[in-house]
Design brief:
Blueprint (H helix, E strand, L loop, with lengths): L3 E5 L2 H14 L4 E6 L5 E2 L4 H5 L10 E3 L1 H8 L2 E4 L1 E7 L4 E6 L5 E5 L2 E4 L3 E3 L13 E2 L4 H14 L3 E5 L3 H12 L3 E6 L10 H13 L3 E4 L3 E5 L4 E4 L4 E3 L2 E4 L3 E3 L2 H5 L10 E2 L11 E3 L4 E4 L6 E2 L4 H15 L13 E5 L2 E7 L2 H7 L4 E5 L14 E7 L6 E8 L3 H13 L24 H13 L5 E2 L4 H6 L3 E4 L3 H5 L7 E2 L2 H4 L11 E5 L4 H11 L4 E5 L2 H9 L8 E4 L5 E4 L8
Parallel strand pairs: 1-2, 1-9, 2-5, 9-21, 11-18, 12-13, 12-18, 13-14, 20-22, 29-33, 30-31, 30-32, 32-33
Antiparallel strand pairs: 3-4, 6-7, 7-8, 10-19, 15-16, 16-17, 22-23, 24-25, 25-28, 26-27, 27-28, 34-35
Helix pairs in contact: 1-8, 6-16
Length: about 575
């Protein structure tokens, strides 16, 4: 006997479940309820349509009700809100939002894909702000675009420096609007760590965007025309985009007695079943397992939601397919740059008390001798004893997501950081180097694990110097003149062997170069000559990302394959 399957919610999770279910079972009765008017749309593309980067609204509509109904032979009911679930009777109560009719529908299997709502806390004046918008769906998009098209705002404030906030800031800037980006934390893009985000901070400011960090919203005044921050700073604005995060839409599940986690996510087992085995849940509303730690977490991403929909459909049709967890791999465009990450960041590892080692590298996107190579700033976190990869981050202009995707694959395959050395990745000078940046992570990590080098981090070096530690800059004099760490002494690498007598053997010698390559070579020279040495991980470039924020300088720091920086101030191209 065929099953009657009801899916609550469309878009990534619900629509994927429905399509896969029909392919697996031609006889199943499939009903999809969607509270809104659109069942499947490219929600990740919404900011770019507002910014006129995506020109056609129809391009956002992945599936229409008519098209999906005919193609997959299913009953799709839009503008229909499921207002109650009775698990004991396997019945739903539905409200037709066009007619206000309320009726019941039975089910054999139920799939919940309600998504997540934008967080909108009770800040004074927020409900009176007529120019304030959140962005979740097509109607939100239409409202923002209509406001921009008709009101033609000259200024906008984007509150929140996550994915939506950054994309909206860029899109509004693209429309010629002066943008102020406000983030209560000390950095944007929470999935990456502070020193990596600092690269983006400088880039965003170089585009003329006012970036305010570490300052939250206190109140909205004059119907949203004025924003007052916690610091007391006041900003006049024509438009406000509020994007501080999302909260799982779980009320329906809670009212039905389904279990939810501490952060509100609907709890599911490895087969994506809720506490009622005939009810599945997927997407942004559920609590998932962190693939790295095995602990429960919330990671609202489109990719996992689509995969979960496919798994649920398979399991409804009798398979026993497990969802093994979410790694949290993501990428975002930030004006001319890309930022990508996978796995856990340093903040999370510290909070959990996990022992880890951090490494930073700055390889080229492809071979340095082939025109058009740009450095990628990369960070990896791993277990110094087992080599387990905890996570990785990258920021740059080209080749960023490619490397993070390789590392995400390595994590999923339970490879360790040493295995990265052995990966055979595609190479030709226009696309990569013979030693790909992913391979370089393996080389650097293995040097640390094998005791060939010890490192010190960017946030530690100033205090080391302040406390009387010795810091040697092994770059060339020309590089040193362009910027150096205060308290360091200059001994270029080529002169180090002949000047060893200038360095004491009873103290640790700390070394830095531009990106860490020459610093490693210097460390090996010193160690084999009886010195104690530590290399500044990531070199001056990592340090400079945090402590130098001159976003007005158009000079380009071209770093060749040996790690030497050469400055070109004759062009206003991308600054590295």
């Amino acid at each position: 006997m065929s099953k009657k399957v009801i899916i609550v919610g469309g878009v990534a999770g619900g629509a994927s479940t429905a399509a896969r279910l029909r392919r697996m079972d031609e006889n199943a009765e499939i009903i999809m309820f969607e509270r809104g008017e659109y069942i499947s749309f490219a929600n990740c593309g919404l900011p770019y349509y507002i910014g006129n980067i995506i020109e056609r609204r129809e391009a956002l509509l992945v599936q229409t009700v008519e098209g999906m109904s005919k193609k997959f032979n299913m009953d799709i009911r839009i503008l229909s809100e499921v207002i109650a679930i009775d698990p004991s009777q396997k019945k739903l109560t539905i409200k037709n939002l066009k007619t206000n009719e309320i009726y019941e529908e039975s089910y054999d299997v139920l799939v919940l894909s309600p998504g997540a709502n934008p967080i909108k806390p009770p800040i004074p004046g927020i409900n009176e702000a007529k120019n304030l918008f959140t962005l979740r769906n097509i109607p939100d998009t239409d409202a923002i675009k209509s406001f921009v098209d008709t009101k033609k705002p000259k200024s906008a404030i984007v509150i929140g420096g996550g994915f939506i906030g950054i994309e909206m800031a860029e899109s509004l800037h693209h429309r010629g609007i002066h943008v102020t980006l406000v983030e209560a934390a000390d950095q944007i893009m929470g999935p990456i760590d502070y020193e990596m985000a600092s690269i983006l901070h400088n880039h965003i400011k170089s585009k003329g965007v006012d970036l305010i960090l570490g300052d939250g919203v206190k109140s909205f005044e004059n119907q949203g025309k004025k924003l007052v921050l916690q610091s007391g700073k006041e900003i006049e604005t024509d438009l406000i985009i509020f994007s501080i995060g999302v909260r799982p839409e779980n009320q329906l599940a809670k009212d039905a007695g389904l279990k939810v986690g501490e952060r509100g996510g609907i709890q599911v087992n490895e087969y994506l079943q809720t506490s009622d085995e005939t009810i599945y849940a997927i997407g942004d509303a559920i609590e998932v397992v962190d693939f790295i730690s095995g602990k429960p977490t919330m990671i609202p991403l489109a990719g996992p939601a689509n995969k979960q929909g496919r798994i649920v459909a398979n399991n409804i049709c009798g398979k026993s397919e497990k969802y093994v967890g979410t790694i949290g791999t993501s990428v975002a465009k930030v004006f001319d740059m890309a930022v990508a990450s996978t796995g856990n960041n340093e903040k999370l590892l510290k909070a959990r008390g996990v022992k880890y080692e951090a490494i930073h590298i700055h390889p080229g996107s492809h071979a340095g001798y082939y025109p058009g190579a740009f450095p990628i700033s990369m960070k990896m976190l791993f277990d110094p004893e087992t080599g387990k990869i905890f996570g990785a981050q990258a920021v740059g202009y080209d080749g960023v997501e490619k490397r993070i995707d390789v590392i995400a694959t390595a994590i999923a395959a339970n490879m360790n950081v040493i295995d990265l050395k052995e990966l055979e990745l595609s190479y030709a000078p226009p696309f990569s180097s013979a030693k790909d940046p992913v391979n370089m992570f393996g080389f650097v990590a293995s040097n640390i694990m094998n005791g060939l080098v010890s490192t010190v981090q960017w946030h530690e070096i100033d205090n080391i110097v302040k406390d009387g530690g010795i810091l040697v800059d092994v770059r060339e004099a020309e590089e040193n003149q362009l910027g150096f760490i205060k308290g360091s002494i200059l001994i270029p690498l080529g002169e180090l062997r002949s000047r060893l007598g200038e360095l004491p053997k009873d103290k640790t010698i700390h070394i830095y170069c531009q990106v860490g390559i020459r610093g490693y070579n210097a460390s090996r020279i010193l160690i084999q000559n009886g010195y104690s040495a530590k290399n500044l991980d990531g070199g001056y470039k990592t340090y400079q990302c945090v402590f130098s924020n001159d976003s007005s300088n158009d000079c380009i720091a071209q770093i060749d394959d040996s790690g030497v920086a050469k400055i070109d101030c004759s062009t206003g191209e991308k600054k590295l």
